[in-house]
Here is the input.
Amino acid sequence: MKTAQIIRHVPFEDLGNLAPALACTGFDVQFREAGLDDLGALDSVSPDLLVVLGGPIGVYETGAYPFLSDELKLLEQRLASGRPTLGICLGAQLIAAALGARVYPGPRGKEIGWSPLRPGPDVGTQPGMAELLVPGIEVLHWHGDTFDLPPGARHLASSAVYDNQAFAWGDSTLALQFHPEVTADGLERWYIGHACEIAHAGLDPAALRAEGRAKAPRLQQAAEKLWRSWLAACF
Here is the structure.
């Protein structure tokens, strides 16, 4: 059985709709909890797939969150091996940093909410990304940081707020700044876990909930096609 090692930063930002896709592809899923498990002791190469999920901290906050240094070293080794790697939100930012790109607070402020993606110049090189660009599909954005495109990366998508929303690197690394993995039910935990951030941004949890209930199901259908396509290309 193939192994998928998942680095999770907060419990409620989990695999979401990616979980059934991994199960259907025959993966044994193993979670590693940032801040609790020793990420520096992990084998960077042996898992068939490494997935790094999101979280409400910055790549550059290594003084406050020392495990980020271990995580970056792990990703540097993993990327050098060419083994399949997926990063979502903070995970995408960590991949960008591990490839030498700058990660920094977004100059246009936080991007929280639902909006469509725009195709990047290299979107045609990535199987499945077109599913997220179909008219009527909106994705969930929930980040304050952004990043420069790493050298040699293929630019897959942007949004109206930030240019770099998705990139591919090499044959089997995919970095997604947005959240295609979310489900309407799973987001209920986000509204609790991110309550302070929601209030500080002046957003209404009820409005976020209504929008999530309306838009997450269609995103999930598109995301499932993306996962199947990407996993098939990698394995």
Notes: The domain at 2-234 is CATH 3.40.50.880 (Rossmann fold). The mean pLDDT is 98.
